Amino acid sequence: MRRREFITLLSGAAAWPLAAHAQQPAVPVIGFLNPSSADGWESRLRAFRQGLKETGFIEGENVAVEYRWAENQFDRLPALAAELVRRQVAVIVTTGSPAAALAAKAATTTIPLVFGVPEDPVRSGLVASLARPGGNATGINFFSIELVAKRLEILREMVPGTTRVAVLVNPADAASETMLKDVEAATRAMGLQIQVLRANTNREIDAAFAAFGRERPDALLVSGGPFLLSRRVQLALLAARHAVPASYGAREYVEIGGLMSYGANVADAYRQVAVYAGRIVRGANPADLPVMQSTKFELVINAQAARVLRLAVPPTLLATADEVIE
Question: What is the DSSP string of 62-123?
């Protein structure tokens, strides 16, 4: 073999790995948008990754996830959604609040959107209908706002003789105002009085509890949403300090000392959101995927918190509770 031919052969061989690498398909990227921060979201993210795994995707191996957290600043959501659009992700997943889903929907009409929201997505304008979403969006409704009446019933059973209920909401979260309408309707039907408290900073939360000294409620109903969930330690401590029985919409409050929660199994909703995202990455059309509604609901009671409040948990609640934390 001549020297020139040998060099040419070596050059071609050296190029083979580069050519093979260039032909490998790019790893799909999923955008993840949430109004809160990553702190305290570990269990929900584990459920999200489990859902991806069920569709054959493992983060860091054959799929990448671009996370965008608004750090409880709802006005940042449109810019963060626009970042994911510019990144040309395969699908955008939004959780935590309808505000995140609405920001993503406003940012793109072509990139598929999978949402996890605590209220009716038809009422909020995310989809045309549950069975036939249409457009580029579908997802999971994990029922939070719609469970207000049930939460009030359980709270009144836990605290017999309740006539006055304080309701704590985050005014920066539009979903809270929707919840208040349901609270007002439910309390009227039950003959209860309500005291509305609004807070979207730590200082405002402290001020809301300070108001209990002036108008003492029999019980407290804490709204859902990412901001209040991120302040769950503060809320549970203040409720204990003021000896106010409180009901929450997520088990995370009860796990760190809150009295009780009733709501959808949010971790399972995150898993379902990821399953839909994985199916879309594999080619499914979001318009053909009906909006799913949570079917798993859980009542969690912290027995130690009840004892501190000198509450005797009714046997009926103990029997129906999904978990009693000692």
Answer: TBEEEEEE-TT-GGGHHHHHHHHHHTT-SEEEE-S-HHHHHHHHHH-SSS-EEEEESS-TTT
